[in-house]
């Protein structure tokens, strides 16, 4: 399984503060993840990628994100260290890979890009080889032709592109991205039924257009927990001690940084040192970060959704995700809304940054 990290902020962040300097950064997690219980793949050494958007619009550069990928292990790539010390961005995607589908190649390294859209996935589509040919045949040409590699993750991105009203649009509202994400998951579940696949799929997807971010924590099961997903917010994220120790601070009522983590460690988290800094996105929910830095948590209501108020929600088992090294229990996030609608009256506010890992 893979690891990813997302940062979104009103102020640009130096990439090294997310990727290389923290003692529990995503790079260190690539070879020393204390959540990794899947002994078949003890390291995320099958390549990595970083994607970012420019801090200021430049007509010559355009709106597309810049991507740097490599098939070398992230912890052993000197060029990553070099560029991370020289680049700042208000929106960063980072990903380290442990293959579940697809060969070791640059084309299979996340993030994947189409136009101004950027996509990552943590998890796996169950029995992907069984549904792959049918999935491909259902795609319009523009989505089919974007795929350069052979991972389940990139083909899922192609499905997502096919669900957008116009994948070449210059801008996308949060609602458009949300609906396309819901339709993508629904389509994958259609294939699951058609081919009688019983193993759950772990679908922690994330997509951004450089302005909004949509992240899912999802599993096609009513009995199992999904791979974990966490977030943190504050006014400032900074180094406070030697050895790469970082923390989130709140100096006023504004929440200037949001950070999401998929791999919070037993010593509290992947980047920050305090367990209190992190809150959990619920299983089979999506988190949306709007251009105005509102954080919305929305249930993905389908046959696998169990309302948090339902006693059955407490019976979800952790073994499936834990076997993949993708789950660690911690303090849960209170629901923001329970009817599946974006709560515009009580959004969670966070004007400055986001990170997922």
What features would you describe in this structure?
The protein has 357 residues and is of the alpha+beta class. Helix content is 20%, strand content 25%. The strands form three sheets. Strands 3-2-4-1-12-9-13 form a seven-stranded antiparallel β-sheet. Strands 5-6-7-8-14-15-16 form a seven-stranded antiparallel β-sheet, with helices on one face. The protein has a two-stranded antiparallel ribbon with strand order 10-11. Strand 14 (285-289) and strand 15 form a beta hairpin. The radius of gyration is 19 Å and the shape is globular. Residues 33-45, 264-270 and 329-357 have low confidence and may be disordered.
Notable characteristics:
alpha+beta, seven-stranded antiparallel beta sheet, 8 helices, 20% helix, disordered C terminus, EgtC-like, Gamma-glu_amide_hydrolase, Glucosamine 6-phosphate synthetase
Radius of gyration over C-alpha positions, nearest whole angstrom: 19 Å
Strand content: 25-35%
First CA to last CA: what distance? 12 Å
* Annotation field: number of helices: 8
**What's the quaternary structure here?**
single chain
Q: Strand order, biggest sheet? A: 3-2-4-1-12-9-13
Shape field: globular
DSSP strand tally:
16
- The SSE order reads EHHEEHEEEHHHHEEEEEEEEEHE
Give the fraction of residues assigned to helices. Answer: 10-25%
Organism: Ephemerocybe angulata
Keywords: Glutamine amidotransferase
Region (Disordered): 330-357
InterPro entries: EgtC-like, Gamma-glu_amide_hydrolase, GATase_2_dom, Ntn_hydrolases_N
């Amino acid at each position: 399984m893979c690891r990813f990290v997302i940062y979104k902020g009103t102020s640009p962040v130096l990439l090294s503060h997310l990727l290389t300097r923290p003692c529990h950064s995503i790079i260190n997690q690539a070879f020393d993840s204390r959540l990794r219980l899947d002994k078949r793949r003890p390291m995320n050494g099958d390549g990595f990628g970083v994607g970012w958007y420019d801090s200021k619009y430049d007509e010559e550069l355009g709106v597309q994100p810049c991507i740097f990928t490599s098939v070398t292990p992230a912890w052993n790539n000197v060029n990553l260290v070099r560029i991370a010390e020289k680049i700042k961005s208000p929106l960063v995607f980072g990903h380290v890979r442990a293959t579940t589908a697809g060969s070791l190649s640059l084309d299979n390294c996340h993030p994947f890009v189409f136009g101004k859209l950027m996509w990552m996935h943590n998890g796996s589509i169950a029995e992907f080889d069984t549904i792959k040919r049918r999935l491909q045949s259902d795609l319009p040409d523009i989505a089919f032709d974007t795929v350069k590699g052979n991972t389940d993750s990139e083909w899922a991105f192609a499905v997502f592109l096919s669900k957008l009203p116009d994948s070449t649009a210059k801008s996308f509202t949060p609602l458009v991205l949300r609906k396309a994400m819901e339709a993508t998951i629904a389509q994958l579940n259609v294939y699951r039924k058609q081919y009688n696949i019983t193993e759950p799929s772990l679908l922690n997807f994330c997509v951004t257009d450089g302005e909004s971010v949509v992240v899912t924590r999802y599993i096609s099961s009513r009995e199992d927990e999904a791979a974990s997903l966490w977030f943190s917010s504050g006014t400032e994220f900074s180094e406070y001690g030697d050895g790469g120790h970082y923390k989130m601070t709140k100096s006023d009522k504004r929440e200037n940084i949001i950070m999401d983590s998929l791999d919070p460690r037993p010593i509290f988290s992947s980047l920050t040192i305090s367990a209190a800094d992190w809150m959990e996105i619920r299983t089979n929910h999506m988190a949306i970060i709007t251009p105005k830095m509102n954080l919305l948590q929305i249930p993905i209501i389908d046959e696998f959704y169990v309302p948090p108020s339902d006693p059955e929600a407490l019976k979800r088992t952790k073994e499936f995700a834990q076997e993949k090294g993708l789950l660690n229990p911690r303090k849960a996030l209170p629901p923001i809304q329970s009817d599946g609608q974006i709560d515009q009256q009580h959004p969670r506010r966070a004007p400055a940054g986001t990170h997922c890992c």
